[in-house]
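ARCHIVE CARD
Drawer: 12
Card no.: 0347
Subject: one protein chain, sequence and derived structure
Cross-reference: see card 0346
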Amino acid sequence: MVVSVIGGAPQLPGRSRARLGEPERLLIDSLAEGLVRLDASGQVEAGVAERWIVTDEGRSYIFRLRDAHWPDGAPVRAAQVVALLRREISARSGNRLAPYLTAVSSIVEMTPEVIEVELARPRPDLLKLFAQPELALVRDRPRPPGGAGPFRQRAERGGGLLLAPALDPDRDPEEPGPAPEDDVLLRGERAASAILRFVERQSDLVTGGTIADWPLLRAANPAPINVKLDPAAGLFGLAVVRRDGFLADAANRGAIAMAFDRGDLVASVSSDWAARETVLPEQLDSAAPPANPGWSTVLPEQRQTAARARVSAWRLANGATPTLRLALPGGAGGTSLWARLARDLYGIGVRPVRVAADSTDADLRLVDEVAPYDSARWYLSEACASCSDAAHEAIEAARLADTLDARARASATADRLLTDDVAFIPLARPFRWSLVALRLRQWQPNARAWHPLNRLRADTN
Protein backbone atom coordinates (compact mmCIF):
# COMPACT_ATOMS: atom_id res chain seq x y z
CA MET A 1 0.00 0.00 0.00
CA VAL A 2 1.48 3.33 -1.08
CA VAL A 3 0.43 6.41 0.90
CA SER A 4 1.22 10.08 0.33
CA VAL A 5 0.66 12.58 3.12
CA ILE A 6 0.81 16.24 2.16
CA GLY A 7 3.74 17.98 3.80
CA GLY A 8 7.43 17.41 4.40
CA ALA A 9 9.25 14.11 4.75
CA PRO A 10 7.78 12.26 7.78
CA GLN A 11 10.12 12.06 10.75
CA LEU A 12 9.59 10.58 14.16
CA PRO A 13 9.45 13.63 16.46
CA GLY A 14 11.79 13.87 19.40
CA ARG A 15 10.87 15.24 22.76
CA SER A 16 9.23 18.37 21.31
CA ARG A 17 5.69 17.86 20.02
CA ALA A 18 4.64 21.51 20.02
CA ARG A 19 3.16 21.54 16.51
CA LEU A 20 3.32 18.28 14.64
CA GLY A 21 2.57 18.36 10.93
CA GLU A 22 0.38 15.70 9.35
CA PRO A 23 3.39 13.63 8.16
CA GLU A 24 4.79 13.51 11.71
CA ARG A 25 1.39 12.74 13.23
CA LEU A 26 0.73 9.90 10.80
CA LEU A 27 4.18 8.38 11.29
CA ILE A 28 4.08 8.54 15.08
CA ASP A 29 0.58 7.01 15.05
CA SER A 30 1.91 4.19 12.88
CA LEU A 31 5.04 3.39 14.89
CA ALA A 32 3.59 4.01 18.32
CA GLU A 33 0.30 4.24 20.14
CA GLY A 34 -0.92 5.77 23.35
CA LEU A 35 -2.90 4.08 26.06
CA VAL A 36 -5.73 4.33 23.53
CA ARG A 37 -5.87 5.41 19.90
CA LEU A 38 -8.34 6.40 17.17
CA ASP A 39 -9.90 3.83 14.85
CA ALA A 40 -11.06 4.26 11.26
CA SER A 41 -14.20 6.12 12.34
CA GLY A 42 -12.35 8.51 14.65
CA GLN A 43 -13.55 6.73 17.78
CA VAL A 44 -11.43 5.57 20.71
CA GLU A 45 -10.10 2.01 20.62
CA ALA A 46 -7.57 0.07 22.69
CA GLY A 47 -3.91 0.95 22.29
CA VAL A 48 -1.17 -0.06 24.71
CA ALA A 49 -3.99 -0.44 27.24
CA GLU A 50 -6.21 -3.42 26.47
CA ARG A 51 -8.97 -2.28 28.85
CA TRP A 52 -9.77 0.38 31.44
CA ILE A 53 -12.29 1.38 34.08
CA VAL A 54 -13.43 4.78 35.31
CA THR A 55 -14.13 5.24 39.02
CA ASP A 56 -14.55 7.93 41.68
CA GLU A 57 -17.20 9.80 39.67
CA GLY A 58 -14.88 10.23 36.71
CA ARG A 59 -11.79 11.28 38.67
CA SER A 60 -9.86 8.02 38.33
CA TYR A 61 -8.95 6.07 35.18
CA ILE A 62 -7.31 2.67 35.69
CA PHE A 63 -5.65 1.11 32.62
CA ARG A 64 -4.44 -2.47 32.23
CA LEU A 65 -1.68 -2.80 29.66
CA ARG A 66 -1.71 -5.42 26.96
CA ASP A 67 1.27 -7.63 26.15
CA ALA A 68 3.03 -4.99 24.07
CA HIS A 69 6.69 -4.69 23.07
CA TRP A 70 9.12 -1.92 22.16
CA PRO A 71 11.01 -2.08 18.84
CA ASP A 72 13.95 -3.87 20.52
CA GLY A 73 11.60 -6.61 21.77
CA ALA A 74 11.54 -5.51 25.40
CA PRO A 75 8.08 -5.63 27.03
CA VAL A 76 6.22 -2.40 27.68
CA ARG A 77 5.95 -1.83 31.44
CA ALA A 78 3.78 0.53 33.47
CA ALA A 79 6.73 2.45 34.89
CA GLN A 80 7.88 3.36 31.36
CA VAL A 81 4.36 4.42 30.34
CA VAL A 82 4.05 6.58 33.46
CA ALA A 83 7.33 8.36 32.77
CA LEU A 84 6.47 9.02 29.11
CA LEU A 85 2.98 10.32 29.87
CA ARG A 86 4.25 12.59 32.64
CA ARG A 87 6.77 14.06 30.24
CA GLU A 88 4.20 14.81 27.54
CA ILE A 89 1.53 16.41 29.74
CA SER A 90 4.04 18.61 31.55
CA ALA A 91 3.57 22.30 30.92
CA ARG A 92 7.26 22.41 29.92
CA SER A 93 6.80 19.82 27.17
CA GLY A 94 5.36 22.22 24.62
CA ASN A 95 2.87 19.51 23.62
CA ARG A 96 -0.14 21.26 22.07
CA LEU A 97 -2.49 19.11 24.17
CA ALA A 98 -0.81 19.81 27.52
CA PRO A 99 -3.02 22.89 28.23
CA TYR A 100 -6.08 20.62 28.01
CA LEU A 101 -4.71 18.05 30.45
CA THR A 102 -4.18 20.26 33.49
CA ALA A 103 -6.90 18.33 35.35
CA VAL A 104 -4.52 15.34 35.56
CA SER A 105 -3.16 15.42 39.12
CA SER A 106 -1.12 12.21 39.09
CA ILE A 107 -0.10 9.24 36.95
CA VAL A 108 1.14 6.29 39.00
CA GLU A 109 2.22 2.69 38.51
CA MET A 110 -0.02 0.29 40.44
CA THR A 111 1.56 -2.91 39.12
CA PRO A 112 3.93 -3.60 36.20
CA GLU A 113 0.80 -3.96 34.02
CA VAL A 114 -1.55 -1.39 35.59
CA ILE A 115 -1.43 2.40 35.83
CA GLU A 116 -3.84 4.89 37.34
CA VAL A 117 -4.51 8.42 36.12
CA GLU A 118 -6.07 10.59 38.80
CA LEU A 119 -7.88 13.84 38.02
CA ALA A 120 -8.40 16.87 40.18
CA ARG A 121 -11.58 17.54 38.24
CA PRO A 122 -13.80 15.12 36.25
CA ARG A 123 -13.07 15.11 32.53
CA PRO A 124 -15.20 12.67 30.50
CA ASP A 125 -13.23 13.59 27.37
CA LEU A 126 -9.87 12.35 28.71
CA LEU A 127 -9.76 9.25 26.49
CA LYS A 128 -10.20 11.27 23.29
CA LEU A 129 -7.18 13.35 24.24
CA PHE A 130 -5.11 10.31 25.16
CA ALA A 131 -5.97 8.85 21.73
CA GLN A 132 -4.28 11.69 19.82
CA PRO A 133 -0.91 11.01 18.12
CA GLU A 134 0.64 13.75 20.27
CA LEU A 135 0.29 11.42 23.27
CA ALA A 136 1.63 8.28 21.58
CA LEU A 137 4.25 6.49 23.69
CA VAL A 138 7.66 6.75 22.02
CA ARG A 139 10.80 5.57 23.76
CA ASP A 140 14.00 7.32 22.64
CA ARG A 141 16.44 4.73 23.97
CA PRO A 142 17.68 2.13 23.49
CA ARG A 143 17.79 2.31 19.72
CA PRO A 144 15.86 2.15 17.52
CA PRO A 145 13.43 4.77 18.80
CA GLY A 146 9.75 3.99 18.44
CA GLY A 147 6.73 2.55 20.15
CA ALA A 148 4.58 -0.55 20.35
CA GLY A 149 3.35 -0.51 16.77
CA PRO A 150 1.14 -1.24 14.91
CA PHE A 151 4.03 -0.88 12.41
CA ARG A 152 7.81 -0.98 12.50
CA GLN A 153 10.01 1.13 10.25
CA ARG A 154 12.05 -1.20 8.03
CA ALA A 155 13.88 0.96 5.52
CA GLU A 156 13.90 4.07 3.37
CA ARG A 157 12.73 3.22 -0.11
CA GLY A 158 11.69 5.17 -3.18
CA GLY A 159 11.73 8.50 -1.38
CA GLY A 160 9.56 7.18 1.45
CA LEU A 161 9.59 5.03 4.56
CA LEU A 162 8.78 1.35 4.35
CA LEU A 163 6.60 0.27 7.28
CA ALA A 164 5.85 -3.36 8.09
CA PRO A 165 3.30 -4.69 10.59
CA ALA A 166 4.86 -5.29 14.00
CA LEU A 167 5.35 -8.97 14.77
CA ASP A 168 3.79 -10.39 17.90
CA PRO A 169 6.57 -12.23 19.79
CA ASP A 170 3.94 -14.47 21.37
CA ARG A 171 2.31 -15.37 18.06
CA ASP A 172 1.57 -19.03 17.47
CA PRO A 173 4.31 -20.25 15.06
CA GLU A 174 1.64 -22.13 13.15
CA GLU A 175 -0.21 -18.92 12.31
CA PRO A 176 0.83 -17.09 9.13
CA GLY A 177 2.68 -13.85 9.70
CA PRO A 178 2.26 -10.56 7.84
CA ALA A 179 2.74 -10.74 4.07
CA PRO A 180 4.63 -8.19 1.93
CA GLU A 181 1.30 -6.78 0.71
CA ASP A 182 0.62 -5.71 4.31
CA ASP A 183 3.55 -3.29 4.17
CA VAL A 184 3.04 0.45 3.71
CA LEU A 185 5.28 2.85 1.80
CA LEU A 186 4.71 6.25 3.38
CA ARG A 187 5.77 9.46 1.65
CA GLY A 188 5.51 13.07 2.66
CA GLU A 189 5.36 15.31 -0.40
CA ARG A 190 3.90 18.40 -1.98
CA ALA A 191 0.23 18.24 -2.87
CA ALA A 192 0.91 18.51 -6.61
CA SER A 193 3.26 15.50 -6.55
CA ALA A 194 0.91 13.46 -4.34
CA ILE A 195 -2.12 14.15 -6.54
CA LEU A 196 -0.22 13.35 -9.73
CA ARG A 197 1.08 10.10 -8.26
CA PHE A 198 -2.46 9.05 -7.35
CA VAL A 199 -3.96 10.02 -10.71
CA GLU A 200 -1.27 7.96 -12.43
CA ARG A 201 -2.24 5.00 -10.20
CA GLN A 202 1.09 4.89 -8.41
CA SER A 203 -0.40 5.30 -4.94
CA ASP A 204 -3.46 4.20 -2.99
CA LEU A 205 -4.07 7.16 -0.70
CA VAL A 206 -3.43 10.90 -0.49
CA THR A 207 -4.23 12.28 2.94
CA GLY A 208 -3.81 15.57 4.78
CA GLY A 209 -5.52 17.70 2.13
CA THR A 210 -6.74 21.17 3.14
CA ILE A 211 -8.31 24.18 1.47
CA ALA A 212 -4.81 25.36 0.47
CA ASP A 213 -4.42 22.56 -2.07
CA TRP A 214 -8.01 21.96 -3.18
CA PRO A 215 -7.70 23.86 -6.50
CA LEU A 216 -4.81 21.55 -7.49
CA LEU A 217 -7.01 18.52 -6.97
CA ARG A 218 -9.83 20.03 -9.00
CA ALA A 219 -7.41 20.83 -11.83
CA ALA A 220 -6.15 17.22 -11.84
CA ASN A 221 -9.77 16.03 -12.19
CA PRO A 222 -9.48 12.59 -10.51
CA ALA A 223 -12.42 10.20 -10.62
CA PRO A 224 -15.13 11.62 -8.31
CA ILE A 225 -15.50 8.27 -6.55
CA ASN A 226 -11.93 8.61 -5.25
CA VAL A 227 -12.41 12.11 -3.78
CA LYS A 228 -13.42 11.96 -0.13
CA LEU A 229 -14.28 14.79 2.25
CA ASP A 230 -14.28 14.57 6.04
CA PRO A 231 -17.06 16.18 8.10
CA ALA A 232 -14.28 17.72 10.16
CA ALA A 233 -15.12 19.32 13.51
CA GLY A 234 -13.09 22.35 14.48
CA LEU A 235 -12.43 25.99 13.69
CA PHE A 236 -12.09 27.73 10.34
CA GLY A 237 -12.20 31.48 10.68
CA LEU A 238 -10.28 34.67 11.38
CA ALA A 239 -8.88 35.34 14.84
CA VAL A 240 -8.47 38.97 15.79
CA VAL A 241 -4.81 39.28 16.78
CA ARG A 242 -4.54 43.09 16.97
CA ARG A 243 -7.12 45.26 18.70
CA ASP A 244 -6.15 48.74 17.61
CA GLY A 245 -7.21 51.15 14.90
CA PHE A 246 -10.45 50.10 13.27
CA LEU A 247 -10.46 46.81 15.20
CA ALA A 248 -10.32 48.52 18.59
CA ASP A 249 -14.14 48.63 18.72
CA ALA A 250 -16.27 45.48 18.96
CA ALA A 251 -18.91 47.02 16.68
CA ASN A 252 -16.27 47.54 14.00
CA ARG A 253 -15.08 43.95 14.38
CA GLY A 254 -18.72 42.94 13.99
CA ALA A 255 -18.90 44.90 10.74
CA ILE A 256 -15.97 42.90 9.39
CA ALA A 257 -17.61 39.62 10.45
CA MET A 258 -20.87 40.70 8.85
CA ALA A 259 -19.23 41.62 5.54
CA PHE A 260 -18.17 38.11 4.49
CA ASP A 261 -20.44 36.17 2.18
CA ARG A 262 -20.02 32.73 3.73
CA GLY A 263 -22.50 31.07 1.40
CA ASP A 264 -20.57 32.18 -1.65
CA LEU A 265 -17.27 31.15 -0.06
CA VAL A 266 -18.25 27.55 0.67
CA ALA A 267 -20.21 27.15 -2.58
CA SER A 268 -17.12 28.14 -4.56
CA VAL A 269 -15.27 25.18 -3.04
CA SER A 270 -17.75 22.33 -2.53
CA SER A 271 -21.44 21.77 -1.96
CA ASP A 272 -20.41 19.59 0.98
CA TRP A 273 -18.60 22.40 2.80
CA ALA A 274 -20.69 23.98 5.57
CA ALA A 275 -20.59 27.67 6.49
CA ARG A 276 -20.65 28.73 10.13
CA GLU A 277 -21.49 31.92 12.01
CA THR A 278 -20.94 30.72 15.59
CA VAL A 279 -17.75 29.77 17.42
CA LEU A 280 -19.24 26.54 18.79
CA PRO A 281 -20.59 24.19 16.10
CA GLU A 282 -23.22 22.87 18.52
CA GLN A 283 -23.90 22.92 22.25
CA LEU A 284 -21.29 20.26 23.10
CA ASP A 285 -20.63 20.36 26.86
CA SER A 286 -21.78 23.97 27.27
CA ALA A 287 -24.84 24.81 29.34
CA ALA A 288 -26.39 26.74 26.44
CA PRO A 289 -26.68 26.48 22.65
CA PRO A 290 -23.98 28.30 20.65
CA ALA A 291 -24.11 32.05 21.14
CA ASN A 292 -25.29 33.89 18.04
CA PRO A 293 -23.42 37.11 17.18
CA GLY A 294 -25.44 40.31 17.24
CA TRP A 295 -24.84 40.93 13.55
CA SER A 296 -26.44 37.58 12.63
CA THR A 297 -29.91 39.14 13.02
CA VAL A 298 -29.23 41.36 9.98
CA LEU A 299 -30.58 39.81 6.80
CA PRO A 300 -27.79 38.48 4.55
CA GLU A 301 -28.71 40.79 1.70
CA GLN A 302 -28.46 43.81 4.03
CA ARG A 303 -25.17 42.96 5.73
CA GLN A 304 -22.82 44.59 3.24
CA THR A 305 -24.82 47.81 3.41
CA ALA A 306 -24.81 47.84 7.20
CA ALA A 307 -21.08 47.09 7.36
CA ARG A 308 -20.31 49.78 4.76
CA ALA A 309 -22.15 52.35 6.85
CA ARG A 310 -20.06 51.46 9.89
CA VAL A 311 -16.82 51.79 7.93
CA SER A 312 -17.91 55.11 6.41
CA ALA A 313 -18.64 56.54 9.85
CA TRP A 314 -15.19 55.49 11.10
CA ARG A 315 -13.49 56.94 8.00
CA LEU A 316 -15.23 60.29 8.48
CA ALA A 317 -14.27 60.38 12.15
CA ASN A 318 -10.63 59.39 11.58
CA GLY A 319 -9.91 60.82 8.14
CA ALA A 320 -8.46 57.58 6.81
CA THR A 321 -9.48 54.36 5.10
CA PRO A 322 -9.09 51.38 7.45
CA THR A 323 -6.46 48.86 6.40
CA LEU A 324 -6.45 45.24 7.60
CA ARG A 325 -3.62 42.73 7.18
CA LEU A 326 -4.86 39.14 6.73
CA ALA A 327 -2.51 36.23 7.47
CA LEU A 328 -3.53 33.42 5.12
CA PRO A 329 -1.94 30.19 3.89
CA GLY A 330 -0.06 30.06 0.62
CA GLY A 331 -0.94 27.92 -2.33
CA ALA A 332 -3.70 28.18 -4.89
CA GLY A 333 -6.36 27.59 -2.23
CA GLY A 334 -5.01 30.40 -0.08
CA THR A 335 -5.14 32.72 -3.07
CA SER A 336 -8.72 31.69 -3.86
CA LEU A 337 -9.70 32.31 -0.24
CA TRP A 338 -7.93 35.68 -0.29
CA ALA A 339 -9.76 36.73 -3.44
CA ARG A 340 -13.18 36.29 -1.85
CA LEU A 341 -12.31 37.77 1.52
CA ALA A 342 -10.59 40.74 -0.11
CA ARG A 343 -13.58 41.30 -2.44
CA ASP A 344 -15.95 41.48 0.52
CA LEU A 345 -13.68 43.84 2.46
CA TYR A 346 -13.21 46.15 -0.51
CA GLY A 347 -16.99 46.12 -0.86
CA ILE A 348 -17.45 47.79 2.55
CA GLY A 349 -14.59 50.28 2.10
CA VAL A 350 -11.79 48.43 3.92
CA ARG A 351 -8.37 48.07 2.28
CA PRO A 352 -7.14 44.47 2.77
CA VAL A 353 -3.49 43.43 2.63
CA ARG A 354 -2.40 39.81 2.42
CA VAL A 355 0.51 38.71 4.59
CA ALA A 356 2.15 35.32 5.15
CA ALA A 357 0.44 32.81 7.42
CA ASP A 358 3.21 33.13 10.02
CA SER A 359 3.53 36.91 9.82
CA THR A 360 3.80 38.74 13.14
CA ASP A 361 2.34 41.86 11.54
CA ALA A 362 -1.21 40.59 10.97
CA ASP A 363 -4.51 42.04 12.17
CA LEU A 364 -6.54 38.93 11.37
CA ARG A 365 -5.13 35.41 11.17
CA LEU A 366 -6.78 32.33 9.64
CA VAL A 367 -7.32 29.55 12.17
CA ASP A 368 -7.83 26.20 10.45
CA GLU A 369 -7.75 23.48 13.11
CA VAL A 370 -9.51 20.15 13.58
CA ALA A 371 -10.76 19.68 17.14
CA PRO A 372 -9.02 16.82 18.99
CA TYR A 373 -12.11 16.31 21.13
CA ASP A 374 -15.65 17.64 21.52
CA SER A 375 -15.33 20.25 24.23
CA ALA A 376 -16.50 23.85 24.22
CA ARG A 377 -13.34 24.81 26.07
CA TRP A 378 -11.11 23.75 23.18
CA TYR A 379 -13.07 25.90 20.70
CA LEU A 380 -13.09 28.90 23.01
CA SER A 381 -9.41 28.63 23.98
CA GLU A 382 -8.25 28.27 20.38
CA ALA A 383 -10.47 31.16 19.23
CA CYS A 384 -9.23 33.45 22.00
CA ALA A 385 -6.07 34.77 20.33
CA SER A 386 -6.74 38.24 21.69
CA CYS A 387 -10.09 38.27 23.46
CA SER A 388 -11.38 40.43 26.30
CA ASP A 389 -10.25 39.91 29.90
CA ALA A 390 -13.78 38.87 30.82
CA ALA A 391 -13.88 36.17 28.12
CA HIS A 392 -10.43 34.94 29.07
CA GLU A 393 -11.43 34.71 32.75
CA ALA A 394 -14.55 32.73 31.85
CA ILE A 395 -12.50 30.28 29.77
CA GLU A 396 -10.14 29.87 32.72
CA ALA A 397 -13.12 29.30 35.01
CA ALA A 398 -14.22 26.47 32.72
CA ARG A 399 -10.78 24.90 33.00
CA LEU A 400 -10.79 25.06 36.80
CA ALA A 401 -14.43 24.07 37.36
CA ASP A 402 -14.78 21.32 39.99
CA THR A 403 -17.97 19.84 38.53
CA LEU A 404 -19.28 19.21 35.04
CA ASP A 405 -22.25 21.50 35.69
CA ALA A 406 -19.97 24.35 36.73
CA ARG A 407 -17.80 23.74 33.69
CA ALA A 408 -20.83 23.85 31.41
CA ARG A 409 -22.03 27.13 32.91
CA ALA A 410 -18.59 28.72 32.64
CA SER A 411 -18.28 27.55 29.03
CA ALA A 412 -21.66 29.09 28.15
CA THR A 413 -20.58 32.37 29.75
CA ALA A 414 -17.28 32.34 27.90
CA ASP A 415 -19.02 31.63 24.60
CA ARG A 416 -21.34 34.57 25.04
CA LEU A 417 -18.54 36.95 26.12
CA LEU A 418 -16.19 35.92 23.30
CA THR A 419 -18.99 36.19 20.74
CA ASP A 420 -20.09 39.62 21.96
CA ASP A 421 -16.45 40.72 21.92
CA VAL A 422 -16.13 39.53 18.29
CA ALA A 423 -12.69 38.14 19.06
CA PHE A 424 -13.10 35.45 16.41
CA ILE A 425 -14.87 35.54 13.05
CA PRO A 426 -16.21 32.07 12.15
CA LEU A 427 -16.44 31.29 8.45
CA ALA A 428 -16.96 27.54 8.03
CA ARG A 429 -15.93 24.17 9.41
CA PRO A 430 -12.43 22.92 8.55
CA PHE A 431 -12.10 21.58 5.02
CA ARG A 432 -10.26 18.24 4.78
CA TRP A 433 -9.99 15.99 1.74
CA SER A 434 -8.35 12.71 0.71
CA LEU A 435 -7.90 10.68 -2.43
CA VAL A 436 -8.75 7.05 -1.69
CA ALA A 437 -8.35 3.95 -3.85
CA LEU A 438 -11.39 1.69 -3.94
CA ARG A 439 -9.48 -1.20 -2.39
CA LEU A 440 -9.08 0.73 0.88
CA ARG A 441 -12.43 -0.50 2.09
CA GLN A 442 -12.01 0.49 5.74
CA TRP A 443 -11.40 4.18 5.04
CA GLN A 444 -14.19 6.19 6.66
CA PRO A 445 -14.92 9.92 6.75
CA ASN A 446 -14.99 11.17 10.33
CA ALA A 447 -15.08 14.30 12.47
CA ARG A 448 -11.40 13.98 13.45
CA ALA A 449 -10.31 13.78 9.78
CA TRP A 450 -7.99 11.00 10.94
CA HIS A 451 -7.18 7.82 9.03
CA PRO A 452 -4.71 5.41 10.71
CA LEU A 453 -2.67 3.33 8.31
CA ASN A 454 -3.62 0.04 9.97
CA ARG A 455 -7.32 0.76 9.49
CA LEU A 456 -7.53 1.18 5.73
CA ARG A 457 -7.96 -2.33 4.35
CA ALA A 458 -10.45 -5.01 5.38
CA ASP A 459 -7.64 -7.45 6.19
CA THR A 460 -5.44 -5.18 8.31
CA ASN A 461 -3.59 -6.24 11.41
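Annotation on reverse: Residues 300-318 form the longest helix (19 residues). The mean pLDDT is 94.
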